[in-house]
């Protein structure tokens, strides 16, 4: 028998109650009528916790454009702070991660809210940091800054949040009943931040949480995003549909981390994957076809035309998109657009195939087959150095998540690539991350 791996994968799941595969909510067995109910989200989260997943993850969208354009899966239905707080009371082990934009909040507010939920959950909170390229109209912002300025602001935002979380020493609370002293004030200090974007005195009102500070996630593969992630993140979510590109991305992040004075292995890189898992390969292919059969291709064409800023009205879905319509601007559309463009031109994909690919995986890679076949692909990526783990994006809800938990995860456990029980009590422990020190112990 071959030797077991020295460490296991990180596995998280993207909590999209309608299902990650667009239009999967149209399946007759979906429970789309229940998606606004806490009871349904609690049920899904407990399914993920029963599978021993590291964390669930809530994305966020701060306007209604996606829903109005027929894209139910990416609606920002669940405001992350309130949702994570509710779920903290209904779970015991699983991490609770959510997106908050540095454009539309304040460092003190964000740091305080996340620290509060981190305490209430016993140290299980993660923050996915984004800078937001849209949604300003709902915050009185008529024109969002250029990307380089948004990332500069995000860096200062993070500096402030980290300083606030670390403003109490781990030894600050002494709870001396005899003297009537709860906190040693010499071990709590203001941060007195005066910067380009923020003025914050600090400190926070409460002591450090069980994991020291919330886990910092980052998702964004532009140059600015990679630099921000390499400088601050504990883990990075990324869309990497091709293994060789994922290996290169992970190395880039490692090299950038070193350039910022961090260890090469400081950051966990977590590509997304959409697993369509069956008892057999044939059953998985049948499920993939059922999902495809529920796609509205007219809406799909309009979604991609707007998403990519390409004229598609005159094209039949059986035709490829002409090369000249893609353009050759390397800065257009971000990294995901460039990946799709390169693949479309290289493989001659038809518009229908592009719609199916976008609806199925949204720029991530799709794995279709039996639990054994899908596990083979994940293990191959893991062993090749393409990933520290994966964000498992359930194609449908609740069935897609059930198949992940009852078919795929046990296969990975049997091979020794995933835990059978939670190792620690905090998200940071379960991700294999060290607990950072406060102001009086940090290097």
Description:
This protein has one domain (10-278, 365-430): Alpha-Beta Barrel (TIM Barrel), CATH 3.20.20. With 443 residues, it is an alpha/beta fold. The strands form three sheets. The protein has an eight-stranded parallel β-barrel with strand order 1-2-3-4-9-10-11-13, surrounded by eight helices. α3 (80-88) runs parallel beside α4 (107-120). The radius of gyration is 22 Å and the shape is globular. The chain has helices at 38-50, 65-68, 80-88, 107-120, 147-165, 223-232, 243-259, 281-293, 297-308, 323-326, 334-347, 351-361, 371-383, 399-414, 427-430; strands spanning 10-14, 55-58, 95-101, 125-130, 173-176, 181-183, 193-194, 199-200, 215-219, 235-238, 268-278, 365-370, 389-392. 39% of the residues lie in helices and 14% in strands. The two termini are 44 Å apart. The longest helix is centred in the middle third of the chain and has 19 residues, at 147-165. The mean pLDDT is 92. It is built from 15 helices and 13 strands.
């Amino acid at each position: 028998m071959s030797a077991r791996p020295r460490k296991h994968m990180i596995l998280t799941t993207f909590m999209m109650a309608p299902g990650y595969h667009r239009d999967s909510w149209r399946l007759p067995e979906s429970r789309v009528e229940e998606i606004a109910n806490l009871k349904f989200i609690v049920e899904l989260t407990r399914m993920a916790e029963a599978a021993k997943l590291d964390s669930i993850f809530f994305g966020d969208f701060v306007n209604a454009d996606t829903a109005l354009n027929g894209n139910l899966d990416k609606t920002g239905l669940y405001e992350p702070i309130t949702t994570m707080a509710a779920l903290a009371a209904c779970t015991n082990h699983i991490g609770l991660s959510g997106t908050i934009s540095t454009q539309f909040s304040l460092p003190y507010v964000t740091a305080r809210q996340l620290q509060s939920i981190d305490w209430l959950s016993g140290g299980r909170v993660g923050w996915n940091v984004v800078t937001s390229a849209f949604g300003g109209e709902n915050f009185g912002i008529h024109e969002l800054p250029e990307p380089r300025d948004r990332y500069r602001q995000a860096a200062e935002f993070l500096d402030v949040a980290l300083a606030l979380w670390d403003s109490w020493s781990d030894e600050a609370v002494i709870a001396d009943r005899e003297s009537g002293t709860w906190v040693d004030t010499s071990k709590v200090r203001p941060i007195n931040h005066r910067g380009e974007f923020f003025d914050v005195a600090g400190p926070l009102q409460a002591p450090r949480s069980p994991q020291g500070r919330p886990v910092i996630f980052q998702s964004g593969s532009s140059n600015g995003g990679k630099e921000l992630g390499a400088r601050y993140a504990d883990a990075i979510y990324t869309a990497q549909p091709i293994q060789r590109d994922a290996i290169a991305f992970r190395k880039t992040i490692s090299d950038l981390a070193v350039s910022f004075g961090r260890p090469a292995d400081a950051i966990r890189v977590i590509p997304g994957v959409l697993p369509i898992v069956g008892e057999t390969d044939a059953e998985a292919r049948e499920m993939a076809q059922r999902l495809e059969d529920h796609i509205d291709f007219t809406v799909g064409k309009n979604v991609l035309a707007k998403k990519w800023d390409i004229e598609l009205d005159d094209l039949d879905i059986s035709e490829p998109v002409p090369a000249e319509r893609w353009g050759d601007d390397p800065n257009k559309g971000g990294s995901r657009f460039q990946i799709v463009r390169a693949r479309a031109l290289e493989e001659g994909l038809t518009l229908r195939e592009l719609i199916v690919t976008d609806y199925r995986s949204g720029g991530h890679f799709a794995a279709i087959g039996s639990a054994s076949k899908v596990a083979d692909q994940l293990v191959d990526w893991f062993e090749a150095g393409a990933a520290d783990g994966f964000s498992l994006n359930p194609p449908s809800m609740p069935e897609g998540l059930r198949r992940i938990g009852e078919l795929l995860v046990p296969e990975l456990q049997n091979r020794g690539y995933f835990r059978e029980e939670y190792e620690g009590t905090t998200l940071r422990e379960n991700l294999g991350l060290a607990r950072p020190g406060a102001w009086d112990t940090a290097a």
